[in-house]
Amino acid sequence: MSERFRLLLLVVVLVYVFVAIKLIHRKRLSLNYSLLWLAMAAGMLVMVMFPGLVYDLTRLLGIDLPIHMIFTGFAFFALVMLFYLTCIVSRDNEKNRAMIQQMALLERRVRELEDRLAAQESTAEQTAAVTEKESA
Known about the structure:
- The protein contains 4 helices and no strands.
- The protein has helices at 3-25, 31-49, 51-61, 66-135.
């Protein structure tokens, strides 16, 4: 890998890390959800800084070309990220379902209390009317 290309990759990775940290700081990206993205940035930084490590790992794993190993690594990362996000969506769906059920129960209770209050007001009005007629 040429020095010019490594320098370009280093700049790209540093911009990537800067943007990720900026989004976390602005609270547009949650820290606990961004840990995988930051881990990927660290991995990319290691690959850019030590390209010999990529070649050694390629030989160790028995992969023909370093680009195949990098592509496989990114595909694996994408699958891990999809699985992680699917778990988050599933958990949030369960929370939403529980909140909807609680809200429905509270709405029913409010309706029952409103009906009781209306019945008490109606009874109070009837009692007041009867008392008014008797006093007249």
